[in-house]
Design a protein that fits this description.
By secondary structure, this protein is mostly helical. It contains 13 helices and four strands. Strands 1-4 form a two-stranded antiparallel sheet. A two-stranded antiparallel sheet has the order 2-3. Strand 2 and strand 3 form a beta hairpin. The chain is globular. The N and C termini lie close together (about 10 Å).
Length: about 350
């Protein structure tokens, strides 16, 4: 048992390093893309098998969830068990690569900064196009502030969905459980909409996604608050050191210049007040921490598939959002990911 925990520690560490070096590769055979193809294919053959009624579509959605999860979990189980049986090094290598495809910290940073650079360098239309690649809402009519908010909200939410949650499930059950989570999350992103097509068919996927994210979302919020305190403490010391030495502030130090730094108590207050200000029990967890940390107001009404959804706001409107908020959000995401990985590796090391 101790050896397997050590092997998992190695696999998670290697996967984290691979993610930071290479990011998420855009290849057709990406395992998450294959899961997406499996979901689309399964939807096509399950729908005709059931009546076009509320209960019929919900039953079809349950079949989708069960079938996809069986395949998405069985494949990494077979790969890892087979290769660990062959040799521990082969097993660690395979599990590292499998886990690497489930982590998205580096790609989240890259895609979010594309939005920032597009807004600053090419204007609003380019920003709208860039943010449309990472959000599910309609973006054609977004204002500049709307584009920035959409990017910041995506960074906040995906700190849990794309970093801490797969890391949590990898810690608990290695690559197989991480792929179980990614399959649930992918199904929710594809069929978990409350529109005419998926109102009932996507019920099982959406509810299961809410369930599997209950712990990771709250853990992500806690880690983000700790990370914010670390980032702000580091920034304050860096600024003071540069003042004492009469040196120019570094680019990272200038990033927070002119922004009133919020105390951890303020961030906690916003979190406690707004952590459930969302239809999902999990999405507002990290968004409320991000809003409190940046001192801005996020969320509010948004349009999906041409229909405006009225949503409560998250955070206090202490100042208007600005381009640099995307980079600040990315900095908090990276710090949260770092603390998450360190915590995971330390706990696994103690268990060996």
């Amino acid at each position: 048992m101790g050896k397997m925990i050590f092997y998992r520690l190695l696999a998670i560490a290697i996967a984290g390093i691979l993610d930071q070096i290479f990011g998420d590769p855009r290849v057709a055979w990406h395992p998450i893309c294959l899961i997406g193809n499996l979901i689309s294919w399964t939807e096509k053959w399950t729908r005709p098998l059931f009546p076009k009624t509320k209960s019929g579509e919900r039953a079809a959605g349950v079949y989708l969830v069960v079938f996809v999860l069986l395949i998405a979990t069985a494949v990494p189980v077979a790969i890892t068990l087979g290769l660990y049986h062959l040799h521990w090094f082969a097993g660690v290598l395979a599990e590292s690569v499998l886990l690497y495809f489930t982590f998205a910290a580096r790609s989240l940073e890259q895609e979010s900064m594309v939005v920032s650079h597009a807004l600053e360098g090419e204007g609003l239309d380019a920003g709208r196009k860039a943010v449309s690649m990472i959000v599910g809402r309609d973006t054609k009519k977004l204002t500049e502030a709307g584009v920035i908010k959409a990017a910041v909200e995506t960074v906040a939410e995906n700190t849990s969905d794309g970093v801490i949650a797969p890391l949590f499930y990898a810690f608990v059950g290695g690559a197989p459980l991480a792929y179980f989570y990614k399959a649930v999350n992918t199904m929710d992103s594809m069929v978990g909409y409350k529109n005419d097509r998926y109102q009932y068919y996507g019920t099982a996927a959406a509810r299961l996604d809410d369930l599997v994210n209950l712990i990771p979302a709250r853990l992500s919020a806690l880690l983000m608050m700790i990370s914010y305190e670390f980032v702000i403490t580091f920034q304050n010391r860096s600024e003071q050191r540069n003042v004492d030495r009469k040196e120019k502030l570094s680019q990272k130090s200038r990033l927070w210049q002119g922004v009133q730094k919020r105390s951890l108590r303020d961030v906690w207050r916003i979190y406690r007040r707004d952590c459930h200000a969302h239809a999902s029990p999990n999405s507002a967890q990290t968004e409320s921490v991000m809003a409190g940390a940046l001192g801005v107001q996020l969320a509010g009404d948004a349009s999906y598939f041409g229909v405006v959804h009225h949503k409560p706001t998250i955070g206090d409107d202490l100042r208007p959002v600005e381009h640099a908020d995307i980079e600040r959000a990315v900095m908090l995401m990276k710090a949260t990911a770092m603390f998450g990985w360190l915590l995971t590796l330390i706990v696994l090391a103690l268990l060996t």
